[in-house]
Structures are given as C-alpha cells and as structure tokens.
Amino acid sequence: MYGLLTVLRVNLRPHAHPLTLGVAALALYLTGLPQSITWAHSAADSGELAAAAATWGVPHPPGYPVYILLGKLFLFIPWGDPAHRLAVMSAVAGTGAVVLIWYLIREMQYLTSNGKESPSRWPATVGAGALVVSPIFWSQAIVVEVYALNALFFAGVAFLLAGWWRRQQSWPARKHNYLWLLAGATLLGLGLGNHLTLALLVPLVGGAVWWGACKGFLSIRRIGFVALALLTGLGLYAYLPIASSQGPPINWGIPSNWTGFVWTVSGTPYQPYLFGLPIDALPDRIVSWLRLVFLEQFTPVGAGLALLGALHLWERNRPLLLASAWVVLSLTLYAITYDSKDSDVFLIPVFMALATWLALGVDWALQVVGQSSLGRGRPSEIRVSGMVIAAVLIMAPGVTFAANLSNVPLRGDAAAYRYAQETLAGVEQGAVIFAETDEELFSLWYGRYALDERPDVTVVSSRLLQYDWYWEQLERRYPSIVPEQIPLGASPRLAALIEESIGVRPIYATMQVRGVQAYEQERVGNLLRLR
Prior knowledge:
This protein is mainly α. It has 2 domains: 2-404, no CATH class; 415-530, no CATH class. Helices cover 61% and strands 4% of the residues. The chain has 22 helices and 5 strands. It has helices at residues 2-12, 16-30, 46-54, 65-74, 82-112, 122-132, 135-140, 147-170, 178-192, 202-214, 220-234, 239-244, 258-265, 282-296, 299-316, 318-337, 348-371, 379-404, 415-425, 438-450, 468-477, 490-501; strands at residues 432-435, 458-461, 507-510, 521-524, 527-530. A 5-stranded mixed β-sheet has the order 2-1-3-5-4, covered by helices on one side. Helix 20 (438-450) links the parallel strand 1 (432-435) and strand 2. Helix 6 (122-132) packs parallel to helix 18 and helix 16 (318-337) runs antiparallel to helix 17 (348-371). The longest helix is centred in the N-terminal third of the chain and has 31 residues, at 82-112. The protein is elongated.
C-alpha cells in the first residue's frame, strides 16, 4: 500500500498544479450556478438551448449538434432542472479549458526555453489562474451557453498542436508523435459542431501540416488521415437532419431537407451580422475592446505581463507568436465588427491566448530576476525578493477575483425561470401566446417543452413568422391555429394567425410583440390579452 501511494505521489507530482487549479475552478463555478435558465451574462439563449437538448431539437443556426449531444449526457445528472444540469456542463467545460491552457502554457514554455532545464510551473499556474477569474470567461462557465464548451475545444486543439510541434522538434524519430496532430484534427472537427468560430484554427492546422510535409514528417497518406479525422468530427452534423425528421418542437430551418440543412449550418440569418457593425459605432466598440483587454479581464498588471510575454515570444519563437497572434487578431476583428450587443463573448479565445502570453511574461520576469543581483543575494534577501515578486504575480488574478465576486456568480438568479412559470400559469386553457424577444420566447419554450408545463398552451414566435420553414412547422404541429392561405411577410402572418384564433381560443402577446395595436388589449400579468 505504501509503495502504491509512493508511485501515485511521484506520478502526480508534475500535475499537482493543474489538478489543484482545476478543483478550485470547478468549485468556484459550481457554487455560482443559477438554479435554472437565466437572462444574465448574455445567456438569453439558455432557455432555447436547454429546451432543444431536452427534446432532441434543433436550436438556432448553426444547430450546435455537439452541444446538444453532450448536453444529453449531462441531463442524466440526478439533481437540478434541465437548465441547471447544462450549466454544470458549462462549469466542467470551463474547468477543462483552464486545465488545458495550463498544459498549453507548459508546452509553450518548453518551446521558448533553452532546453537546459525544466521551466517553473508557477508561470503556467498564474496565467491559467488569471483566466479562471477573468469576468467574461467566468460568466460563461456558469450559464447555459456554448462558449465554455467552445473554449474547451479551442484549448484542446491548441494544446495538441503545440504538443505535436514540440515533440517533432525534440524527438522527430518517435512514430506516435503523429497521433497528437491526428487528435487535434479530430477535436477541431468535433469543435466545429459546437461553434463555427473554431474554423479560425483551420489555418493553424493547415500550417502544421504544411510544416510537417516540408520537414518530411508527414507523408501524403498521413495528410489524408488528418483530413479524414477533421471530416469525421464534422460528421456529427448528421444529427441535425436525423433530429429534424422526428418533428421536435424546436426545429430551426427544418434541416431534414437539403435546403434547410444548408440554411441552418451556414448560419444564414446571422450572416448580415458578420462585419455588419455600422461605421459610426466602430470607435465605441474599439474603446470597449481596449477596456476589456487592458483593464477588466486581467488588470493593467496582467495586461503588461501579457505584452512582456509577447515580446518574449518575439525573441524566442516567432512562429509561436504568429500562431497565437492570429487567434488574437482574427477573433478581435470578428468580435469588434459583429453587429450584436453580446459580441464580447466571442473574445474568450482571445483572453485565453493573452493568458498564455501573461504566463510567458511571468516566466521571463522570473528568469530576469533569477539572473540579476536579487537572485544571487543572501538567502534572506532572496526570500524577501521572492515574496515581493509572488505578491505582484498574484495581484492580477487576485484583484480580478475580488472585483467580480459580487457580480459574476448567479446563485440567487431566478428571474427568467419565474417569468416562464408565472406566464404559463397565468393564461387560460388552450391559450396561444405570441412572443417576440429572445428573453420572452426562449423562457416560454423552456417552460413549455423542457419542463413540459401547460401542454395545452401554444407558444408562437412572432419574429420567426418571416421564415417559410417556421410557417410549415406551425402547420404540422398546430394545424388548428393556422389558416389555409399563406400570407407573405411576418406582419401579415401574425395578423392571419390572430384572426384565425380570436374569439375561438384565448390569445395573448408578450409586451414586446409589434402589430397587435389594432386589437383590444388587457394586461394580464406578464402578457397582453387580445380580444
């Protein structure tokens, strides 16, 4: 028994830092989860995602098949409602991303070291620890959204690519090195089934393959296997037509046919948002980015260390700097020009890259101190200097943690859940509810489909009426409320649906629905009763 414990202690010792950091991160995230769906932290989609996962549905484009399939596994957790269980998945994914960033930093340390000695683990712990409590990353690790899982895939692909590159440089004769690249390509394909911004890593995989081919590490056959691995991961998009063909209540685009599949996977309704920010709004967006990067996420101290880390990369490993700078610049451009009020969440991989730079900045600073007179002084002087340096290093994540502890956790948040409960409970038997905003619609979808409350009530999206596929879905699921003739345009269709049901069944509209002014309205709780 003692021998077994000794072996475990020896084998786990190199992993003590990431394991401790992972446990701390998971505890922080789990204690801050909301009890159910939430509107906080740009998570208005939480109701829709949870309802889609609970019903084998197809959420908004591009459909997020990997999120839905993984979410199904977490729905087996024996506590909490469906949304709470999916929030646990975000916490686990966020924790996994932090741990993988720690290991990525270690790979980067080796790639920038002189190879004579093993780099200190503390810089990786400081960098990954700063990411744990950076407010945007933290906020997405506690809500039902796709961004924590996207961070996990980003970190995983980056770690595998860096690991393959280091092993090919250090031990090129090892045949199993190739498995790192193969795993990275597979993970990239899977990750694209969760969020399409991961496509920005495709050039890095392509660059790795090109470098390996030029160096003679990769044959045509192996390059083919890398491409096949990527396509195999993408194969999970087959979930969309399979699920859609079963007629789930949430079925964006009806991707069971080719037209609907392309419409959904390509994100057709959101394409105008890409580079769609008005020019006059660009200065404010840039200022917001500067504030996020240099003040809010890692504090000015952390941002300064990240700049030092970038300079260190410039001196020691410029290809590695170019690869990480590609992530920073491409996603910054994407987020800044994306015409959406919650585009800040797209910057999470940027903050992850900056966390690696921060760690390398810490590493460089420690090396400089070690080579200076401080590192060659008396033991007492060295201890004092070490304590001062440690205090400075802890400042970045420590200050960020203290500043956000009161506003990021959502343990007491239940506004969206109460809205769904109260609204569905307050309508008459057989009612039709027209909902407009994401907050209203997705909360009601969650209560109606994920919690299976008020099966007699029909919830209709007034905005989705602009799409023919949605009208077709209403005809299939609720033929009694749909007129025979199909009007053109969202407003005429809304009017036709109201006229078909008014006087026959109770009609309600949420407060933000437009086009109901012609009807007599009575305020009933969160809704307007139309007569």
